[in-house]
Amino acid sequence: MFADWQIRGWALSTINVMRSVDLEIYICGILVTTSSTRYSRVDIDQIVGLPIKSGFQISPQAIGTECAALIFDALKKIDNKKQTIDKILSIKIKGSDSYLPFSSRLRNEKVDISTLMPALDKIIGVRVRNEYISIRDSLIDGIESPLNSRADLVKPIAFYLPQFHPFPENNEWWGDGFTEWTNVTAAKSYWPEHYQPHVPADFGYYDLRVEDVQRKQIDLAKKFGIQGFCYYYYWFSGKNLMTMPIDRHVEKDFEFDFCLCWANENWSRRWDGSENDVLMAQRHIEEDDVSFINSCIKYFKSSRYITIDGAPLLLVYRVSLLQNPSETIARWRAIVKEAGFPDLHVSMVESFGLNDPHAYGCDSGCQFPPHGVVAPEINSSTKQLDPSFRGRIYDYQEVVRTEIARPKPSYTQFRCAMPSWDNTSRKGLDGNVFAKSSPELFETWLSYLINQARENLPVEQRFVFINAWNEWAEGAHLEPDSKNGQKFLQAVRRALSFDRGVMSALDLTADTETVGRLKVGELKAFIEKIVNANHQLQKLMKNYDGAIPDRASPFVAINSQWVCVEQGNVNDRAWLDSINGRPGHESRQIVMSREQSLSLRGWIHAPDASLTQALPIFICLEGIEGTSAKYMAGVYDREARPDIVGALNLGENSLWCGFAMKGDLVGVAPGRYRITALLAIPGELKSVVRVDAFIELLVA
Amino acid sequence: MITAPPKSASWTLGDTPLISVIVPSYNHQDFIYKCIDSINSQSYENIELIFIDDCSVDETYERAFNLLNTPYGRRFKRIDISKNAENLGAHDTINLGISRANGTLVTVINSDDEFHPERISAIVAEMKRRGASLGFSLVEVINDAGTTHSSDDLAPFLHFTVRQMLDLNRDVTAGFGLLRKNLAVSTGNIVFTKALYDAIGGFLPLKYCHDWDFVLQALFYGEPAVVQRPLYKYRLHPQNSFKGLAHLAEVETEVVLRRFFRRVVNAEPINPICPSPSHWPGYFQQFIARLGCSRHLDREFGDGLKSWRTYQASD
Predict the structure, then answer these.
(1) Which domains does chain A have, with CATH numbers?
(2) What is the pTM (predicted TM-score) of this model?
(3) Contact flag A618-B162 (C-beta cutoff 8 Å)
(4) B76 vs A321, B31, B42, B49, B306, CA distance in Å?
(5) Which of A87, A267, A399, A556 is buried most deeply by CB count within 10 Å?
């Protein structure tokens, strides 16, 4: 019955023969499944005289993985492998205490438990394979990096555009279903190296109405060390647009910090805040500006909102548009304080040439490249540029160079870097492009900013901004695309690393300064040499791909009580084909220093021993004269030697007689040693067979 | 071999901190006396015993209960003996036991294994010397449970202590050795601070590798203190070598390695010699490549699989 793993039988209810009977199937007392009678049994039909469905049949597929594992364990614990069926299986009528009897043939037959195991194993195997990914992911997730919470770290904040979902106003102005992707996908390349269109990778052309997208964005941002999003807040005289993702962040309490940047421009058809083609206007009258700050309070109250000494951090995109900035901001402060906060921290986005936050009553400035960057136009040197292109092409490398050299301003400034920038997807032939950007350059830029934040800003204010997380239509996104994958994100992580911090701190120090007796220039040269050598070595190793042997494993002094040594046959011998690269038969004695390592390659002639791969072999140095010291090293490389088995007519048990090993002598006391091989004996926990190599080692 | 420099951990200031010995027991009535007696005979004074039975169907619980309720039990600072209402499995039982622990230090013992009398003293001394939050020793395998093993089943256990010692010395740090396999061997063979346990967040619900996961996660915080003497007696029971379970072992191996990689990739380890891209730049990646696990590391780096969505590597 168990052989083909089918449990078959019949049952009927005497009260109502037409009703099916519910059954519970137990194996080893474990409830495996429930079933009911549902198959025709001609023999039973004849007895009853009615066509009833009295048969049941259960296949192993009905056993769940968990169950199979439990049964597996239970069967394993049974000592006697032959058991009668009733010790293993029982079938109970549901809701009663009655068990079905077994046929007499089954009762008298004994079941070999070991024949049941493979079927159970298969169930576990198939399920595990099918569920591999979900089992794995549920177990892997939930690692929080402990360093993220360190207070003195520089916190990168990425600007976040909460568009990427259709909403009624956009449908009206641009057509149904319009999102940023409409522009992104339409982008064209205007010269051979011009990277357009940008094709999103990990998240695809996502729709922010899907909550999971935002969660995944946060997971990814956190993974690479980004500490918060700065959401653009679209508030037009009481009318909110695109606040859905921000509201969801607060409502679902995503474990990620955020702050707001009021995008206080008119919404125009040209995406540049101009007075033409206004779709949604800002009035910036006093009443509006007061109700604006009131609308922010609910966000400020979120425990995830970024604060500086308790004061919520609010960015204003174009503070000069406020009717009376200083007074407005003073009024905001009063309202925010009334709401229970110690203060409000207003940071002026340094857009459109704004560079004096105090003149507007702000607490700080926040850079916003490409606004305010200095870079030469390179249209004329761009090869095969579409002649009808009317926009401007700038050199990203120059931007990085000048941004690094930018002097420290007299006010508190949060610095900002952009991974790349290109708005030709919005403006076509009139777009501007920062060409030649790369993750490496971005990393250099960002690490300087991080280092400067460390030097120039108090712990509470160590922010660095990134423009942007997802400005796809401006070509400025950390989010993975098909060209760079997660490389810009990796650049953020590396820029935050300790090593990068040290390097950029050094770079900012003049070569002539001294550290102790050393000149900084000397230190830089030294580090550069090491980094370069490491880089070259890695490349070399990559090319050899596995051909480089493991480092030598050391000979270790072993307590002699841990091994019981037995003598093998007289003719047993460890033959060394090579000792330290030279033919082994050339010498009976080798002299080595402790700084060297002993490499041996050879084979073991021990016809009676079992030389399978599973059984370990050790190489042993036995002290001759005076000392009984014993050093052992493991043999991690075994070789099949069909040549030897063939030539000497040895048995299959000698196939894996070949070995290679490299043993470090650094821990070995000077003296004379005999080299032997110790072979494990099947089934013996502590015994070995000793096989001599008849070679002496003198450790000097 | 490089070892981490000792750093001061506050618990090492105490003389002999309280250690909680957790005994998660299941159907080991024949061994439970030997097990408890090996804790009772520890040369280390300051011990509390937390005995937690996971619904044994034999007399394990009763025997332990009766023994510990005699004056024999007075040797312990405190005894907490309980029985789970239902079978929870090993990891949950251990986690539950630890939640009841008052000790600065915690150790677990499988209910069929035994401690060497000097075990706790020796490991705690080494942990203090190194300023380590986790310590373990070599393991001696004993085969007296009366079950017969085929020589194939026994092969992995031959010369266990010697191999464990050689493996521990094989790599540039013990941490790298731990990446090859769980050289700490068993949950029962590790001693750790409660603070470390809290930082890691307990044992994962794995069937085979929860101890390996724990030791690797601990590596992030500090290098383990290893006493190279066999101070733990591990009793052999029949092993199974079925494929289905091997699949499970494969999932668990990936989980353990990926969790470790994720931790050391996402943040710089506190342990200055923890195998990691930040502390062993280049070498770490090579080592992982040799282990054949680069694909797991790549995924944690964010250089994962290539598909239509992901980039074509230019280098």
Answers:
(1) 2-138 (no CATH), 150-187+197-374+394-507 (3.20.20.80), 553-699 (2.60.40)
(2) 0.83
(3) yes
(4) 75, 20, 10, 7, 58
(5) A399
